[in-house]
Amino acid sequence: MKAYQTLAPLVIASLFACGGPSVPTARAPQIKAQQRKDGTIIDDKALCKGLKDKNGQLLKDTDIEVSETAGPGAVQPNVRRVFRVFGKGPLARKILICREVDTNLDGFKDVVRTYDTEGQSKEERADTNYDGRIDTWNLFAKGRLAEVRLDRNHDTRPDEWKIYVSGKLSRIKRDSDFNGEPDIWEMYRKGRLERMGIDKTADRRVDQWLYDTEWRRELKDARERKLKDNERKRKAKEEKLRKAAEKIAAESSAE
Ligand SMILES: [Ca+2]
Ligand SMILES: [Ca+2]
Ligand SMILES: [Ca+2]
């Protein structure tokens, strides 16, 4: 492994030096983190830490196993997987509980996802502008996306909350002046903004509701069409049953 780590930068350098077309898969390392002499990173700002079991107890080093791999374009390992180990010896079972990635290859981890013992996603956190601070939180319920929290002004506090119901966007709360309190509420139906409430006086109460009247009319029309369609189907079914009954009556009187 060490030979590969020392050779890889040379290989990449010579590929770029030959003057031919650039190789899209080989990205030059952009590592900003402090490295040891062998190229390994001293502190990669690990995010898979403080992992707990379902009773909230911190997992010990002996409960877990760690694997480090290098993704496409990475010279140093940039993907870390942490497995929970159940049992011992040949009967031991490993389950992925945390995975973290350095996506921009600067040597610092910037996305982390945790999993429950069923293998379902629990939470994902990301530093999307690579300033070393988490700004995106994706929360899952039974493996499905339930809430997204965003820190738009990068002050470490969320200021936009997106709520999902059955995997679909249901509403958004926004703190538009970044004072820590939401002041805009958006309600969605079928993925489309239906109405928006605005708090203009900072008392956490809506002062004005804005409606998408066209969308409401479309929904109303669609509802009415569906009701009419159901009624038509019901009548057709009744007619069919009535005819069948008539046929049976005619046949029995003929016998
Ligand atoms: Ca990074
Ligand atoms: Ca950030
Ligand atoms: Ca914020």
Write up what this structure looks like:
The chain is flat and about 100 Å long. With 255 residues, it is α+β, with helices and mostly antiparallel strands. The protein has a domain at 1-108. The protein contains two helices and twelve strands. One calcium ion is lined by residues 151, 153, 155, 157, 159, 178. The site of one calcium ion has 6 residues, from loops.
What descriptive keywords fit this protein?
twelve-stranded antiparallel beta sheet, 30% strand, binds calcium ion, 255 residues
Overall mean pLDDT stands at: 86
Strand content: 25-35%
Bound molecules: calcium ion
From the helix content, strand content and strand pairing, which structural class follows? alpha+beta
Share of helical residues? 10-25%
The number of E-state strands comes to 12
Q: Low-confidence stretches at least 5 residues in length (pLDDT < 50)?
A: 1-24
- Walk across the major sheet and give the strand order: 1-2-3-4-5-6-7-8-9-10-11-12
Order of helices and strands: HEEEEEEEEEEEEH
